[in-house]
Amino acid sequence: MSLFVASRCAFRAAAPIKRSLQTRRYATEPASGSPKSSGSTLALLAGAAGLAGAGSYFFLSGTPAAKKAEAAVKEAVPSPSTPTTAPKKALTGGDQGFISLELKEVTPVNHNTKLLRFALPEEDMVSGLHIASAVLTKFKPSDSEKPVLRPYTPVSDEDARGHVDFLVKAYPNGPMSTHLHSLTPGATLDVKGPLPKYPWSANKHSHIGLIAGGTGITPMWQLVRAIFANPEDKTKVTLVFGNLTEEDILLKKELAELENTYPQRFRAFYTLDNPPKEWAGGKGVIGKELLKTVLPEPKEEGIKVFVCGPPGMMNAVSGNKKSPRDQGELVGVLKELGYTAEQVYKF
């Protein structure tokens, strides 16, 4: 979700990066493995059982047991000619306008972040979002003439049925994040979308770099999920994730699982403004030395660098975009390192 919310942290010169970051390389990827399981295993087991019993069925055809077995098979296995119905989408874009979603669950994540689950209008619906896209949220404060509008990127799967999840960090002067944190189950939120971002397709780039600050991790997570959920997509991914403290690192467990499952294709580097004494990662803001060390080099073929974070980080790394449709000029560290505007996308 792109939680495009401003951070209040000040940016200072990055501290030297430890040598361990400079020598880290991709390991050998396991022969198999996926970060998430599916229901296909049960289907395969059921199919195998059906095939194993096929010989007996032919010999006993016409008996009551055989008729029951045949009926069960016909009910469980749809005819190849039966068309597959795509799930209904809650958000269809165009002239649909805003729809109201009811908050079902609130889960605290850390000292200032909550996971909010909203119900879609129908239990069998999907959100309607695609990779990469976001939604526009709206609410009108009682003391304001105009509504507050903010884009967010959900962290739930695009094919999740019946709900959509947002990871929301509250900021003292953030009207939308403060409002969302005040909601309790049963409250509603107006949303509109999807808002198209970067059109992703499998193997569009051979290697991508993701530079995120704070809740800027949410659109990166949307990309990462899509890449590693698709066995046909062989894209390599390098993530650089900056935060104030270790407790502020969002989705760390999920990112670690991906790194362990795909060590040849995914690696993550973290840097903290206020690290604990035992911290082994980077210290300070996301700086030139770290990016030069870990990102795919600008001379490589088929690379792309994505950036999302608070305005201060964006200014230092790539420059802020002018509007949703205008990426603005490429400046900052990425330009100094030799990347071109075509190689960088700002969420």
From TrEMBL:
Membrane topology designation: Single-pass membrane protein
Give the GO biological process terms.
Answer: ergosterol biosynthetic process
Under catalytic activity, the entry for this protein gives: 2 Fe(III)-[cytochrome b5] + NADH = 2 Fe(II)-[cytochrome b5] + NAD(+) + H(+)
Cell location: Mitochondrion outer membrane
UniProt keyword annotations, A-Z: FAD, Flavoprotein, Membrane, Mitochondrion, Mitochondrion outer membrane, NAD, Oxidoreductase, Transmembrane, Transmembrane helix
Q: Please list the cofactors this protein needs.
A: FAD
Q: Which GO terms describe its cellular component?
A: mitochondrial outer membrane
Q: Where is the FAD-binding FR-type domain?
A: 96-201
- Domain of life (superkingdom): Eukaryota
- GO MF entries: cytochrome-b5 reductase activity, acting on NADH
Cite the binding residues for FAD: 150-152, 167, 169, 176-177, 218
Family, according to the entry, reads as follows: Belongs to the flavoprotein pyridine nucleotide cytochrome reductase family.
Q: What does this protein do?
A: May mediate the reduction of outer membrane cytochrome b5.
Q: Could you identify this protein by its name?
A: NADH-cytochrome b5 reductase
Q: Which organism is it from?
A: Cercophora newfieldiana
Organismal lineage: Eukaryota, Fungi, Dikarya, Ascomycota, Pezizomycotina
